[in-house]
Records
---
Amino acid sequence: MFAKFEQLVLKGIQNPMQRKLILLGTLLAFILSVLMIAPTKMVLAKMLPGKNNDTFTIYVKLATGSSIEQTQQVTQCISQYVIQEKEATDTEVFLGMGAPLDFAGLIKGSHFKNSENVAEIVVNLTKKHDREEPSYMMVQRMRPVIQSNCEKLYPNTEISFVEPPAGPPTMAAIVAEIYGNDSQGIRELAHKVENVFKSTEGLVDISIMQDQIYESFEVIVNSTKIAKSGVDIKQLNNILYLAFEGMQIAVKNSEQYNDQIPIFLSLSRKSKEFSKKDLLSIKSKLASLKLMNSMGLMIPVTELVEIKTKKSNPMILSKNLHKMTNVMAETDMVSQVYPLMDARNKILDTFQNEYDIKKIGLFNLELTNKADGKIYKLTWDGEMEVTLDTFVELGAAFIAALVLIYLLMVIYYKSYVLSGIILLGSFLSIIGVIVGHWIWDLITPDTFFLTATSLIGFIALIGISSRNSLLLIDFTKSLMHEKGMHKAEAIAYSSATRAKPIFLTAVAIMLASLLLANDAVFGGLGVSLIFGTIAAVIASLIVVPVLLYMTDLETQFHFHERKAVSIEDPL
Amino acid sequence: MQHHKEYIPKDYAGKLAKTFIRNPLTMILGIFLVAIGYISLEVMPREENPQMVVSGSTVIVALPGATAKEIEKIIVKPLERKLKEVKGVEHIYGMAMDNVGIVNAAFFIGEAKEDSNLKIYDKIMQNTNMFPQGTMNPIIKPLDIDVDIPVLSVAFYSNNKEMKKTELYDRVKEIQHHINGLDNVAVTELKGGSHHQFNIEVDINKLSGYNLSLGQIKSSVEALAYNVPAIKNRTAESTIAMLGIKNAIDNADDIGNIIVAQYMGSPIYLNQVATVTSSYDIQNFQRVTISTKEENGVFSPFQEQVTLTVSKLQGTNAVIIADEVKNELEKYKEFLSKNGINYVITRNDGERANEAVNELVFHLLLSIVIIAILLIFVLGWRESLIVTFTVPAILAITLFVAYLTGQTINRITLFAFLLSLGLLVDAAIIVIENIHRHYHSVESLHETPDELMIKATDEIGPPTNIATLAIIMTMVPMAFVGQMMGQFMKPIPANVPVALIASLFVAYIFTPYLAVRILKRPGHKKGEH
């Protein structure tokens, strides 16, 4: 078998036609595989795919100012769907606070949750080995049902599904940061971006990180009346707080219990309730609340204050000293890159009437409001940003690896040409990596992404395939040097002899990677190694011999005399 | 056998092979390597995700009564500017709300945790004067991934409908103290549950009926709930007599019987205008409930619960801690069930980590077996056996080095091993293949097995060294990838090069050593000698 291969190589490299064919074919394969990523989107890129977990969390957020009872209604609505799940083992509802912190919650600010309008629901599932449906498929299936039925209970309710991330946690898959100086303008723009996200396919759990503005009331103290009536403002404020919020006014130490026991004073729930959420009922309630002045006279609170309606003060967010609002979205089992491009194109198209749009950087936008000339900036963050950074840095690492290998080879062979051939040979494994992802995508039911781990696999491949070429060239050199073989024969003979260990090591790598290929996170690495190795073997056994034949090996090996032996008589 | 010149190895490969091929200690070295590797695998802490160095601090400053816009101007903005002076801060997030301002400083990934926390604390303490009048003391909360993220959570709930709301909390609090005492447990926290509290709920109508104000009630209760230390006095005989003063409030009735005012000469007791109960914290809106699937496959109705969370110290084994907590809970099972309390473990990262690790170790073994079978077919079973032996030796060295450098066994470390598995058999395969080729070639018939081994190893030494170096070179730049992802992937550049270097040594030392003992020279050629 190897003898036949030797003859094939011998004939192949000496025939100019076949040489051209091989090189052209390689070039074509390379171009085609690159085309698979960029314009045709046959292979999709994503930082990390989803991971099959034994648990997930549902975040519930009602409009700012909602009561715990309203929040509970929403969680009850969600729970009734959760408990129908066959694979769920238990579920916990954390009303008004975050669930025990996890990786995702740490970044999403779950530990700061402490208000009546939030809740988290933890759903624990059966072990992933005993379960057919991966958690990410469950989430994908439950999400539309729960959101369409429970979000409508109260306006502005946001229900989002949070899974433990496969890699480092991020705020959200896509985060659009909107910067500007005018809060109102940021609000308007954020809503517009939100609407764009909502109409973009593949984006779910869309939310704006901002408080809703709701109707509230303000007690305005009339200082003249206060001064005349002989009570002080502090007393008034305290009594108002005591009456409606209540206060722990004293504690009692206890030997029996683990904590001090507070004594809590407040109006009874029934007697402090406002009959309605309007000015009149608040006034009538405050009228029955009385203060005692320094003379011991009882004065109704309403005598001293005025009550007005006002809008609530929304939270003001800033990042790196600039006012900002986030619009966040998760992706529904798709890569975040493509929905982001869609959303960005939509923004470019539809916002033109109101804003002058300038592109800055790679994807970021600068929007100038045509009406008032105010400038806003839209930058992308979240998993997208991390993906981009990671791919850029891994790309740099890859280039650095190439340079290092090239220098190493130059030191070893003292020849730029030979080192170039080795590098070229190893670079061709990219064809295998990309085609491999395309094939794997065809045979697996879910979308198979080109991920950060694929890139790591590719980087490792550079080293592996340069080893193949290296062994080949080294053997050729010793054949020519010690046995005085002719160039073509030496190349053919060493290709044939080295084919066995090259095949062996390649199959070893492929078999070891086969188990990786089924993993959610490291699938990319596995597939890269399997198919990249195939490409690397082909490259080092077919392309590298052709390239070697085309160079003046005697000069490159630094032989002092030409050792020409007839082709017909090798020994 | 003819006399001929002894083969002098030119490369380290041949030199190593020559040194060890007849050395009696080689076998012991092999056993020793595998042993330390196995011990490392057992003692190294196991986690699901690799440790990441993420530093950051949150500063919370409260100014009661200020609006969001005021807070932004007088607290958040100056604070942001000050924190921006701190070196190593990547992003600053500010949140201004009514009454409170929060500023979060996130450091670059990889900045040392302790240093970063200290820098923020220092900066705030140096500049306490920048806060406006009336602000409360700033609260600085450093982010600590290890301590903040619990590895275990247990939900306690009661089936006993009669049980008082606060009792569950009290019982769990007792257990919490015991769990906290376990080794390597960092923080335990309770979520949910109702605390004990005396409630005075005043009826506003009665209040106006008796012409009282809330302030009067407040001051009369405060006056009574006053504690003083015991009084020490001397007697005429120079002995000491202690005079303890009992707190006037013992139960809810005591509070109810407080006289809040006099009305037309007769006293008004508190319970005439208010309901006084000894119950739970009614003002707390937070609630935690649980529903579990019962044996019949139907979920139980939601019940009040208390969740106990346990987090571990950095670099400790999540698996061991989780098991210890489970054992500790077993001890209290009787105590709990007597009180009608059940519990269910709702998070067990130790178990998850152990499962992930075991699954990957199984994959690792499976890969080794597959490669061994492949080699049996191509090279023969003796050669296959040799290569298969080198794998545990290499992995053992890598594990030991990982242990020495303070790494933990997690998903990524094991993937680094799986990745290197494909690479690390290469050196051994190349050596054994060359030995195999020489063994079966006519040219080397006159050579002794020892010499042949050394020669065959030496021959492929230089290209294998350079090739392995080339793969290591590809891994080196990966160590410089920053961000979260770089941190997350760190075990790969940290372990793959070690495995590769180990694979070279093992291939040069053990492959010829084993080959000379296990391989058989083709018999039919011996006759030609």
---
Amino acid sequence: MLRAMRLDRRMLPMAMGLVALATPAAAADSLTVVTYGGAFESAANKAFFEPFTAKTGIRIVKEEYDGGLAKLRGMVEAGDTTWDLIDMETSDAIAGCDEGLLQKLDPKLLGDTSDFIPGAVLPCAVASMVWSTIYAYDTTRLTTAPTTIGDFFDLGKFPGKRGMRKSPKAALESALMADGVPAGDVYKVLGTPEGLDRAFKKLSTIKSQVVWWDAGAQPAQLLADGAVSMTMAYDGRIQVARTRDKRPFAIVWDGQLYDYEWWGIPKGARNADASKLFLEYASGPDTIWKLSRYIAYAPPRKSAMLKIDQAILPYLSLAPDNMKNSLRIDAQFWADNFDSINNRFLTWLGQ
Amino acid sequence: MTAEATAVLSERIVRRGVRVFSTAVLIFLVAPILIIVPLSFNQSSYFSYPLTGLTLRWYDFILQSPEWRMAIFNSFVIGFSATAIATVLGTLAAIGISRPSFPLRGVIMPVLIAPMIIPIIVVAVSLYLVFAPLGLTNTHLGVILAHAALGTPFVVITVTARLMAFDTNLSRAAASLGATPWAAFRRVMLPQILPGVATGSIFAFATSFDEVVVILFIGGPEQRTIPRQMWAGIRDQINPGILAMAGLLTVFAVALFLLISWLQGRSGASAR
Amino acid sequence: MRAFLLAVPLLIFLAATFVVPIGKLLIMSVETVEVANAFPRTAALLAGLPGPPALPSRQIFEALAADLETAQDQGTLAAAARRLNTYEPGFRSLLLKTVRQLPLPDGEPADKAFQRIDQRWGEPETWRLLGRAAHRWTLDFLLTAVDHKIGAGGTIEPVEASQAIYVGAFLRTFAISASVALICLVLGYPVAFVLATLPARQSNLLMIFVIVPFWTSLLVRTTAWYVLLQPNGVFNALLTRSGLTAAPVALMFNRTGVLIGMTHVLLPFMILANYAVMRGISPDYQRAAVSLGAHPALAFLRIYVPLTLPGIGTGTFLVFVLALGYYITPALLGGAGDEMISQLVALQINRQLNWGLAGALSVYLVVFTLTVYVVFNRLVGVDRLRLG
């Protein structure tokens, strides 16, 4: 009994002390950059963060988050913004701007904005790279190589399981493109009740064979395990599996759905000037392409595409050959329709 | 054969059947843990038998990795702090509620054990709603308060059970002999209920130590605990490091089991 | 009174960390302030109108124009737009599109300008929805959570089949929880019986098989099943190698995985609850019945089982109630079409930040859980809940 009590008494102050220790302190001439972490962060570290520190002497403090605006909203409302620069996805970048959580960007900072590919500069954010939803297969398992988005939906020609993300986003666009809708008309068609029916009908043709995934790392695993013969995936993940893990994977670019990744400066950022300096540096035509040395994501500037090593060009979403039949994900469309379409998608899944 | 003999025989067969069935169920309970722990020592990063060779590198990996180290640190800091709060508040309340004079017991008891019954997702979302404007999300304090609330019912229940066996005349005797209420509590009641307090606090600690849904909603990257990190690992890319962590947690579970058995041995059969 | 004072600190603590937050979430299911806060002038004018207006007066258009601009400055526009979008997909972008064209050019009447920006401003339906969203109290979320809505005529009607997901999810949650409770009872009752009737030494030893899993982290056990049940996992390797099946069997990302995982996690509760009761039953009763000529099976059913009813009740209640709120195990082991209500509540917050619907789903979940609790308390008595 005594022993148990002594244990308790000793632990209490220790625990309290540890809590006090866990509170971080802020530094003056530093820049707190928040990313999703993982492969993108380590590539950005080599391509942008380290050279920037070497050039300016401004230290970069890296932090991770899981996306979403909830935490940022909390900081801005409390008037205590500890972040200086955020790596964001499109829906967050647009909503963050609408809600006044991000600072408006001065386009002058970015130099010649016409050099950016269309849509890569928003009022509150600038694109850092381009990622894409593609489909991939294992070259050692398929005897004939699929080449079009239609092949993904063709169970007769290419029998076997398919991996897809458990979300209507990207799945419906792919279904329409496979059904012969030209890329430019996809959202127009999807916006009508008949078009939505058509997309679901096409999706239903492969439903029995689909293995649904949630997290971005799963498709490469499914493919490696032979659990699926083809899978929708993010291009960077497949490239990592190909180059680092030496997997015999190939990407089909036809019908690719690309989107941008963004930098945004939060309202009330303490080191906003340093953030702007960083954006000027990292978005510059001489720097922005360097990310692709470390991870296969394309830069959103036309001139930068020319500087890229020709050997890796075929593996980038923005390479002209890969862009022939491609579509940019429409964040506005999904902001309006995700709720109702996702309900329908969930009902459809359960049927 | 007589009817009686048939009955005895069939009873024996039934008994044998029940034993075999029970053994199978017990194996079902432990087998998954027993099967994956050896895999955490596997050379190759594939989860299959036979093992390709034994290694400690996955354990080394998690003990070296900053993320896992932080998760371990957080789990203990949050667990101990939440347990301390839950134990103090829960024990006091249990002493109060066990007195015959306690008013409105039928209303208050359900409130005290509600954290055990209300679905955890409702708790997590509600706390997110209320903590965010207060700046308590993404803080250790917020998670500690939430876990303390989840842990209190266990302390209340175990201490109340212990107090039912406690003879209140002892306290009255101590008071009549001139002891102050505090001294009477410390010298007479506390030693009696301590095993109950300890058992309840272990339950409270285990609750916090294993909790992930609330953390998913109100915790940030700095509040990642072991289960939160495992959740991320399974969702993202399941690697043998997770199995190594699972191995460590299994050892921890055995330790908790031994601790509880020891406490119950001390408290004797009356605690049940 | 002293007795009560001792419980006060915990009551205050639970009120702050538990009762008030949950109460607030449940109130969110009927209260909606986003639109009224963002567009106060418009809301006041719309509330003053007699019935659903054909098309509002120019004054209301002007009020909305002014409200939109203020809302954007104050950062309340986004929340209001999200709220309106739950009525009508596209309402969000209608508002954002309109606000981008403000302030209106001098001299152009507000109603004309709005209809020039988007023709939807000329439709009475748009204004009907705006007027409804401006009310502070609403039944919308509670109706949506059971796949109903208030139609154009003001009557309650079911939503289209393709949008009906919640009733199905509630039924599924109920079915999964009931199945798990039943499976646990079938598996756990005999084990508890064997443990309770064995000599103490042996039973204490075997108890390790129940208690160690009980103390092992939920995440560890779910991970274990994840690894075991994978298409190329240990279990499937065993099946294919032994020739029982030709190809891997789908054991996870479906209902099978959910049931296996949840049963494994909750089974110890069932065993322990029954064991506690069975331990206290003297074998003499049954022996007496048999010696009086009863068939052993009959004696078991008539004498023993009724005596264990409190254990059966407690175990089934615990497993069922805990299963109702399950989140982690179905999220990791379940597949498409296995979503339980907890997952849909999480989805509302993570994806949409739709507090109203999350609150409404919670209302039904909590009310149902409490009903089960009250029934249990009446039949068995909550004092039976023991630990350890």
